[in-house]
Design brief:
There is one protein chain. This protein is of the alpha/beta class and 492 residues long. The chain has 2 domains: 264 residues, Aldehyde Dehydrogenase, Chain A, domain 1, CATH 3.40.605.10; 185 residues, Aldehyde Dehydrogenase, Chain A, domain 2 (3-Layer(aba) Sandwich). Helices cover 37% and strands 22% of the residues. The strands form 7 sheets. The chain has a 7-stranded mixed sheet, sandwiched between helices. The chain has a 5-stranded parallel sheet with strand order 9-8-7-10-11, sandwiched between helices. The longest helix has 21 residues. The radius of gyration is 24 Å and the shape is globular. The relative contact order is 0.14.
Amino acid sequence: MTEYFNYINGKWVKSLSKKTFVSLNPTNKKIIGKFQRSNKQDVEKAVRAAKDAFDSWKNTPAPRRADILLKAAQILKERKKEIGTLVSREMGKVLKEGLGDVQEAIDFFEYIAGEGRRLFGRTTPSELPDKFAMTFHIPIGVCGIIPPWNFPIAIPAWKIAPALVCGNTVVFKPASDTPLCAVRFVEVLEKAGLPKGVLNLVTGSGTEVGVPLVEHPDVKMISFTGSLKTGKFIASTCAALMKRTGLELGGKNAIIVMDDANLDSALEGVIWGAFGTAGQRCTATSRVIVHEKIYSKFEKMLLKRTKALRLGDPLDKSIDVGPIVNEKQLERINGYVILGKMKDKAKLLIGGCKYTPRAYDGFFYKPTIFSNVTKEMTIAKEEIFGPVLCLMKAKDLDDAIEICNSIEYGLSSAIYTTNITSAFKAIEKINTGLTYVNSSTIGSEVHLPFGGTKHTGNGTREAGWSCLNEFSEEKTIYIDYSGKLQKAQGID
């Protein structure tokens, strides 16, 4: 069994704990590799390395920092098939999605490399004569990066690349379900020429690595994507330490299908949104709100299309849906389905059980649809993070929007309609960070901001131009060339 190491101060090293854990292929439960079960002392070493490297990296011109990120994009292109296949093996998404995960990182590295020659500040007129006013970005310091397992290459890129281009150094704690993807990600940046100490990788659990990283006084910022419960802990801990946080915490995303919609197009959007990545996306479609006039027709179309989905090895190009990432998540999904049947009394149309494809022994769950779901039901309110879809009925557009907004999350949303008035009303009234018209509830293109409202996060936005605000401070500069003291605020 291959053993993989932490990456601290430019060297691949064993954990001081002398303990390891394994990563499993969720398709067949075979061991992918052995990884360091790190502890607080390993975090201390990594933070110290990042702190020591900060001044040198901060003083490296931003275009030179960006050159390394552009080189990383080129290396990722060369290794796309290899790393995309690994994403499918270690996380479980089908191969085309695994390759897409890597492509998103490539696209983002290329985009953010351009910011090395921008990092725009602002100039504005002063209220006084012979005085110049401007702003520019300065780095925060050591950033703790804690991404999830479902996009093990793309989301680390979304977080780490802007942190680096802004002049910060990083301690990266990957998800324990996808540590080999994290190792390969760091290898790419190492080969691209990133100086030692600028990026450090520490594998291990949330308790043994994540908590010490969040609590460390020399870590000035935490960027986290994951559950609302963990996000609340991070937010409260960092607030007490006056530490910057960027939080992306979940979704319960809805597609509205109006009676004038192209139903074939809506059907494809729902299938992709609900069952792509086996529903393990924060932008996954977990609710479909259908106009009552077409509800029965769309339900039949959806049921027929879902029955045709093929489960199995994600590396098999004929497969539509891969496994759930681990057994704990599989049991969580099943628990929600039992709750939907027993407590909520929703009607189970299809699925609703674990599934073992022939010749596999992995963590599979059948694509599941509940109908006659109301907004009061638990399965319509809480994030399940699996291939479970709630079909809901609406009287009209206003009713559909009210149902859409009735949950605590506000990440992605969509409406299928051919009516421009309905489209713009949905754009205005739906309370989410993203709204799609005639497309599924997916994420953002890399050059536009990504994030949500309400309990989905704390208002930060990843990707696009907004990501620079998450990983930098804005400094205001005044230059007075009047030759005398000018007192502001109207003081003579």
